[in-house]
Design brief:
The structure is a single chain. A hairpin with an 8-residue loop joins strand 1 and strand 2. Helix content is about 0%, strand content about 50%. It has a 6-stranded antiparallel sheet with strand order 6-3-2-1-7-8, with no helix packed on it. Strands 4-5 form a two-stranded antiparallel ribbon. A two-stranded antiparallel ribbon has the order 9-10. By secondary structure, the chain is an all-beta fold. The mean pLDDT is about 95. It contains no helices and 10 strands. The relative contact order is 0.20. The chain binds zinc ion (ZN).
């Protein structure tokens, strides 16, 4: 998975199309992600004690990664994620993610 928790994505299909939000959870097995405020499902929580009110809790449901596009916070555009090998100060090589549009590390 090229995207990870905390990344900002743009929703490109479905009822939340056009929304821009943060990834709350990544489900690599299902190729799905949970995005803040997207694919909201209402869950009814029944009262536990008498006199207590039942509640409706809104939780975001998982959506497929093909329904989103990575959104680069550096250039402010929806983009694709690329990789680059970076040489660290200690001469160790590390793989970093870059924005395919502006080339900046993300
Ligand atoms: Zn960018």
């Amino acid at each position: 998975m090229k995207i990870k928790k905390g990344d900002t994505v743009l929703i490109i299909s479905g009822k939340d199309k056009g929304k821009k939000s943060k990834i709350l959870e990544v489900l690599p097995k299902e190729q799905k992600i949970v995005v803040e405020g997207v694919n909201i499902r209402k869950k009814h929580i029944r009262q536990r004690k008498t006199g207590e009110k039942g509640q409706i809790v809104e939780t975001p449901g998982p959506i497929h990664i093909s329904d989103v596009k990575f959104f680069c916070s550096k250039c402010g555009k929806p983009t694709r994620v690329g990789y680059k090998i970076k040489l660290e100060k200690n001469k160790q090589k590390s793989k970093v993610r870059i924005c395919k549009k502006c080339g900046q590390e993300i």
